[in-house]
Structure formats: C-alpha cells, structure tokens
Specification:
The structure is a single chain. By secondary structure, the protein is an alpha/beta fold. It has a seven-stranded mixed beta sheet with strand order 3-2-1-4-5-7-6, sandwiched between helices. The termini are far apart. Strand 1, helix 4 and strand 2 form a beta-alpha-beta unit. The chain has a single domain, classed as Rossmann fold, CATH 3.40.50. Helix 1 packs antiparallel against helix 2, helix 5 runs antiparallel to helix 7 and helix 6 crosses helix 7. It is built from 13 helices and seven strands.
Length: 314
C-alpha cells in the first residue's frame, strides 16, 4: 500500500464516530495484528533485550517496582515482568486501548515462552509456570489485570503519565517500548520530569525508541528516512491520531534525559552505512539542516538513564 494512502485513511478514521473500532478491525485483518503470534514473539524478543540491559545496569526483575508508559492493546511487557517475579507493575495509557480478548490470547501464547522468561530473569522455571497457570485461570473467569496477577499489575487508562499520582521515589524502573516516537516533544519532557520524581535514588528509565518512518513498514518503495523530506507543515497531511510520528532523532531522546538531570548508562545509537547512503541519495528538508548526517540517519535507540543518588525531585 502507498504510505500516503494509509496516512489519509487513518486521518479520516480518526475523525469519524466509531473510527477507532474500525481501525482496530482493519489492523486485525490487514495490519500488524494479522499475525498476532508473530507480533507477540517480536515483543518477547524486545522484552528480553530490555531485561538484559537492565541486568547489566544492576536492575533485576524479581521484586522490582516498575512503571510502564504506553500499555497498548495487550500487556506483553507487564505480563512478562509479572511472570518473572516483579513486585509491582503500574502501566499507564493515555487512552483505554486494552482489549481483554487480546489480553487472554497474549497470556495463552506466553505459555510457550516461559523457559525464556525464566532464563532472562534468572528465576526458577517452576515459579514462572505457577504464576502463568494462575494468570490464565483467573483471566478466563473474567478477572481484570489486577485480580489476575494478585495485585501485581495496575492498569491505568485513561491516564496521564506526566501526572502519575505515584508517590515520590515509588518505583525502581520506568520503561517504554516503541512509544516515545509517537509522543509530542513537550510531553516527553514532562514524562522525563515525572520519571525523575517517581524514581527511587539510582532508579532508571529504559526506553526503546523506533525513530524511523513507520510508513516504511507498509510501503516497500520508501525507507525509514523518507519522512525527513518534508517540513512539519507538509508532514501534517499524513500525521494522524493512529500513527502520530514526532520525527525526533535518536540523540534528542538521550540528550533530553541528560538535560533533566539523568546520568546515561546505556546509549545504543549506531550510525549505519546503509542509512548514510539512503540519506545522501534523498532530498532532506532544510529544517533538519542543523543535525549532522551521522545523527540524522539513526533510526533506533535503546537507552538507560539513571537518577543520581543525590537528586531530590521537586
């Protein structure tokens, strides 16, 4: 599909009564939810990567208090953290997208990943299996996330992650996966400030950001730098409620955390030769002229930002 057609369709759906429900059904039939098993497996891969990075930073999942930004349609990361022994996972979403049919399907499919979850978290497989059995049984009786996980997962939606109402120093980890690229920059700044407040001393933020043009996933004729051709005004023709893309470059997310007083423990930004060639072969809008090509072409970053021990959130 031509990416511009998709953008216009999504923009129209966003303005229609019932457009959100229709968009979901289109995703189930033609979009990313068409292969739910594959989509979920990819999320488990991402979760394992996060757990590995957190472990390297001295954060282990058993007993951890976590705060997720951006729940989505089904709670893969919160479920995996619960199965791994997290003490608490509070997950916030601006809109109540969570669907219980997909949530139960997610829990069922995670049964095939229990050894990987146990190994990644460094916990006995028997404990993970026991928690999984209880989770699925409770969900099948109609329990919500809190009841199904024995109070470990708290789902909040609609909710504002910039005003979480969590106490100061209440969590050890704030995390998101492929979320920040869909958030306006001023809101990201507010999220960073709130994270600094709710994190315990030496607590961390982990964010995995996919900051390439997401339309490249549906149109093989364009690549992940394509949207850099356009000014902000031009880009608004295709930006929409279902696929808002802020087009911020990878360094902005890391530098923003540093501006808010975080120490950067991990920064996976990598300039790839293929992206440099793609960038050199295309026109780039002058509004990006102040960004060096080596930074402009980066389309993903995982980073860990740590709250210093001496910082007191105001």
């Amino acid at each position: 599909m031509d990416w511009r057609v998709k953008g216009i369709i999504q923009k129209v759906l966003g303005a229609l009564p019932g457009g959100h429900a229709l968009h979901f059904h289109l995703q189930r039939r033609f979009g990313g939810l068409r292969d739910f098993d594959g989509e979920l497996a990819s999320k488990v891969d991402d979760w394992e990567i996060m757990v590995g990075h957190l472990r390297d930073a001295g954060i282990v999942l058993p007993g951890v208090r976590a705060f997720e930004i951006g729940t989505g349609w089904y709670p893969t990361f919160p479920f995996a953290c619960y199965l791994a022994g997290a003490a608490r996972v509070t997950t916030y979403d601006l809109n109540p997208h969570l669907r219980m049919d997909l949530t139960l399907q997610c829990a069922d499919i995670l049964g095939g990943f229990l050894p990987r979850i146990a190994t990644a978290a460094g916990v006995p497989l028997a404990e993970v299996e026991k928690r999984h059995r209880a989770l699925v049984e409770r969900l099948r009786t109609g329990a919500d996330l809190g009841v199904a996980t024995g109070g470990v997962i708290a789902y909040r939606a609609p909710a504002d992650a910039t005003r979480s109402l969590l106490p100061d120093g209440d969590v050890d980890v704030v995390f998101s996966n492929s979320v920040l690229e869909h958030v306006p920059p001023e809101v990201i700044d507010a999220m960073y400030a709130e994270s600094m407040r709710v994190l315990s001393p030496r607590g961390v933020m982990f964010h995995s950001v996919n900051c390439g043009d997401h339309y490249a996933y549906v149109d093989r004729n364009v690549h992940q730098l394509n949207y850099l051709r356009y000014s902000d005004e031009e880009w608004q023709r295709w930006n929409n409620a279902f696929l808002y893309q802020n087009r911020l470059r990878a360094h902005w997310f890391v530098d923003g955390a540093r501006r808010h007083g975080f120490d950067i423990d991990l920064d996976t930004r990598t300039t790839r030769e293929e992206r440099m060639k793609q960038l050199a072969a295309m026109p780039v809008h002058p509004q990006f002229a102040d960004v060096p090509a080596e930074q402009l072409c980066i389309t993903s970053v995982d980073f860990i930002a740590r709250k210093p021990a001496s910082t007191t959130a105001g």
